[in-house]
């Protein structure tokens, strides 16, 4: 249940059940008269075939304060794009489906390639980046929110609580990060946060010493949540990672650009469940196997940029400290689950820890072998400097894709 603990690093905004989401929604409608609010939904076409998106659209249809909804559609052909436009047409808000694989958007990509600015790796990071560029080209949004399209327990109140801290003009927050308990089907979920990120940050503090950046990340109850909202002033210079390190990368940018008092985390749900990734121990390019490596690399790169010196010996020590720490943390989660009538498969959890420990070394070797790797997608400020008409042409491309449907 709710608590009121503050960790002293960033503000934690709890749900103390003393104010209804309807009250906050009414306030947001007032705030939105002067501060337009846009929601970005990065979406795979395959997600339109799952039940979660039906509930998400039904819930969003009841939200009164949204100025625009931008749906970035990935991995869709022309027929699937047509279906997606029809699927989202029941949204009463101003909304747009960006067909990322359309010939016109691919031509935009070729222009970016000419300047050496095209995101090399497809995925959520690239999708979000493109949607941000479209939104900034519209020049009418003050607050932006993002969440995924696979949330099986979605309620419109989640968005209301996520957006409220950055939309309220009396609050100082430039970024809000959602958090929630990851439980479902009688189990505690969220393996990567529980068994990789949390013990890794503890281990890093022991191995490389006190670092403000580590304390900053440890302040977040769910650093890998895909739900966050931001005031748009910082977006033109936001450096988004192109791999699975997106969420850690956004927090790293908040650390680089914002004062801690400008960042908050907000409790947005009592229960949260979404599509679960497989561990995929046999394939380093998929599932939690790939995700864990990318997350480790994102953290190592940021620490190195902040002055931390990494060597093979450091990574070997880090792996050993992480492994022992993760097993201790697992014991805590096991007892917590039993006390709450939930289950944890200790064998599978320890298998995950063993894989994550190996991937700490994999990520470390990748960093040492290529320390100058630039995994970030170029900022929109740089894109605009290289091709001043490109953002406006993005708007035209989307408009013309819609015209072809007529």
From TrEMBL:
<protein>
    <submittedName>
        <fullName>Glucosyl-3-phosphoglycerate synthase</fullName>
        <ecNumber>2.4.1.266</ecNumber>
    </submittedName>
</protein>
<keyword id="KW-0328">Glycosyltransferase</keyword>
<keyword id="KW-0808">Transferase</keyword>
<dbReference type="GO" id="GO:0016757">
    <property type="term" value="F:glycosyltransferase activity"/>
</dbReference>
<dbReference type="InterPro" id="IPR029044">
    <property type="entry name" value="Nucleotide-diphossugar_trans"/>
</dbReference>
């Amino acid at each position: 249940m709710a608590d009121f603990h503050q960790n002293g690093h960033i503000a934690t905004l709890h749900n103390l059940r003393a104010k209804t989401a309807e009250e906050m929604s009414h306030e947001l409608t007032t705030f939105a008269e002067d501060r337009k609010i846009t929601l970005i939904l990065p979406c795979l076409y395959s997600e339109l075939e799952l039940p979660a998106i039906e509930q998400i659209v039904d819930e969003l249809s009841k939200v009164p304060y949204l100025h625009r909804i931008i749906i970035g559609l990935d991995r869709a052909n022309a027929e699937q794009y047509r279906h997606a436009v029809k699927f989202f047409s029941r949204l009463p808000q101003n909304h747009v489906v960006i067909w990322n694989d359309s010939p016109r958007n691919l031509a935009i990509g070729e222009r970016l390639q000419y300047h050496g600015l095209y995101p090399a790796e497809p995925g959520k990071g690239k999708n979000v980046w493109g949607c941000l560029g479209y939104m900034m080209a519209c020049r009418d949004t003050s607050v932006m929110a993002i969440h995924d399209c696979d949330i099986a327990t979605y309620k419109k109140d989640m968005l209301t609580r996520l957006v409220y801290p950055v939309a309220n003009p009396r609050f100082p927050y430039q970024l809000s990060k959602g958090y929630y308990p990851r439980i479902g089907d009688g189990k505690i979920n969220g393996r990567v946060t529980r068994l990789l990120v949390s013990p890794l940050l503890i281990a890093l503090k022991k191995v490389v010493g006190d670092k403000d950046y580590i304390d900053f990340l440890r302040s977040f109850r769910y650093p890998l949540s895909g739900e966050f909202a931001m005031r748009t002033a910082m977006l033109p210079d936001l450096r988004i990672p192109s791999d699975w390190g997106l969420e850690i990368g956004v927090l790293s940018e908040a650390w680089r650009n914002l004062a801690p008092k400008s960042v908050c985390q907000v409790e947005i749900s009592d229960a949260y469940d979404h599509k679960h990734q497989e561990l995929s121990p046999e394939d380093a390019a998929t599932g939690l196997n790939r995700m864990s490596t990318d997350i480790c690399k994102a953290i190592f790169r940021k620490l190195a940029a902040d002055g931390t010196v990494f060597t093979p010996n450091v990574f070997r020590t880090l792996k050993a400290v992480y492994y022992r720490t993760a097993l201790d943390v697992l014991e805590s989660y096991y007892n917590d689950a039993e006390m709450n009538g939930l289950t944890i498969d200790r064998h599978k959890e320890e298998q995950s820890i063993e894989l994550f420990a190996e991937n700490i070394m994999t990520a470390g070797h990748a960093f040492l072998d290529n320390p100058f790797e630039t995994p970030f997608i170029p900022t929109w400020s740089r894109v605009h400097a290289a091709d001043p008409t490109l953002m406006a042409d993005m708007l035209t491309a989307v408009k013309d894709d819609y015209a072809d449907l007529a």
